[in-house]
Design a protein that fits this description.
Blueprint lengths: L18 E5 L2 E7 L6 E9 L2 E5 L6 H12 L6 E6 L5 H4 L2 H8 L3 E4 H12 L3 H13 L4 H10 L15 E3 L4 E4 L2 E8 L6 E6 L4 E5 L21 H15 L5 E4 L5 E2 L1 H22 L6 H8 L6 H20 L3 E5 L5 E5 L15
Parallel strand pairs: 4-5, 5-6, 6-7, 11-12
Antiparallel strand pairs: 1-2, 2-3, 3-4, 8-9, 9-10, 10-11, 12-13, 14-15
Length: 357
């Protein structure tokens, strides 16, 4: 979704495993993904006698083979000084545990992203699966979908090599030098716990990760590990910080889609998009609704199973934002399912005996 007229200065998209320079000392690398969102953009930064890699791709034989090609070709003989992960998601941090020891390069990430990824990568407990089932049952999943939840177990672990056991922590506002240029960390929240965008004032470049994308809205979801979270409020606040910190002139290097200019207009699009979704959510909740009921309200296309999990999390994020602002209330029925209604109409929905706030 986009309404703003953005400037896309690069027509050509790099072939998998090839490098395209987009700014002095900054090269664009694209890797495939086995999802509907079928690619991720990675970045290679000139760094003195070596390079810095930003993000890694998902853990798959295909991605590993492309890295092998790259390291034997355009990057042959180049030392990798560090691997930066913008956040813990498997398409970004998935191969850090494979690349870092192989290249003798440290992993740089915010502590929130590293710890979250490390926790998920190693959790194969029955308690993990039980918590997933309980969470999606509370969102209104039917028994057949709950069976899918139990069968899939921990999908994160299957998409990553175990996260490196040590990290060099990045923090909000930190400045460090890569090659001839200073870069600054701009932390965003909502899409992930402590997402690190990287801004280089000297090059007028922003590596935005998933925090700002040119054509789609980053997923902002409630997840089973933090079932009462309000990530949409965090995301909206983070967009305000990004707009106040980074000038509109920057070339934005997103993780999906093409590099573009028009950061502030794109932030405006994202805010408008979520405002509209909040209105739709509020209108739907004139009568009591579950998170699963909101999926068809917020997403008009057919979703596969993988997308359904993201869609339910997004629906819950909008519901929780409205609860936080005092517009909606929620009650839990005797089966443990959460129902959401407008404050003025609370009690009109089909809630079972034994419901609770």
């Amino acid at each position: 979704m986009t309404d703003a007229v953005l400037d896309y200065p690069f027509d050509a998209i790099p072939e998998p495993g090839a490098l395209v320079e987009v700014a002095p000392g900054v090269s664009w690398l694209r890797m495939p993904l086995p999802f509907a969102l079928d690619h991720i953009n990675l970045w290679v930064l000139e760094d003195g006698d070596g390079v810095t890699l930003v993000d890694t791709g998902v853990a798959s034989d295909t991605t590993k083979a492309l890295w092998d090609t790259l390291l034997a070709g355009p990057l042959a003989g180049r030392r990798v000084n560090r691997v930066i992960a913008t956040h813990f998601h498997p398409d970004h941090m998935g191969l850090a545990g494979w690349l870092c020891p192989r290249l003798d390069a440290p992993l740089w990430a915010t502590l929130g992203e590293w710890t979250y990824g490390a926790m998920l990568a190693f959790d194969d407990s029955t308690a993990f699966v039980d918590n997933q089932v309980a969470f999606y049952a509370s969102a209104g999943f039917a028994p057949d979908m709950l069976a899918v939840v139990r069968e899939r177990g921990n999908p994160y672990a299957s998409r990553v090599v175990p996260i490196p056991p040590a990290v060099r922590r990045m923090v909000e506002g930190e400045r460090f030098t890569i090659g001839a240029h200073e870069w600054q960390v701009v932390v965003g929240r909502g899409h992930s716990p402590e997402h690190a965008a990287l801004w280089c004032p000297g090059l007028d470049v922003l590596i935005s990760g998933d925090q700002v994308l040119p054509r789609i809205s980053p997923n902002v979801s409630v997840w089973p590990q933090e079932p009462d979270a309000d990530p949409l409020s965090l995301f909206i606040d983070s967009l305000g910080v990004l707009k106040a910190t980074v000038p509109d002139s920057v070339l934005v290097l997103p993780s999906h889609g093409r590099p573009f200019r028009g950061l502030h207009a794109r932030i405006g699009d994202l805010l408008t998009h979520h405002d509209a979704r909040l209105v739709d959510t509020l209108e739907a909740c004139t009568t009591a609704q579950r998170a699963i009921d909101l999926v068809s309200v917020l997403f008009k296309r057919t979703l596969d199973v993988h997308q359904t999990f993201f869609a339910v999390g997004e629906a819950m994020a909008h519901l929780h934002r409205l609860v936080a602002t005092g517009t909606l209330e929620r009650r839990r029925d005797a089966d443990g399912v959460w129902w959401f209604s407008r404050v003025s109409s609370m009690g009109s929905g089909p809630l079972a005996p034994g419901e609770s706030h």
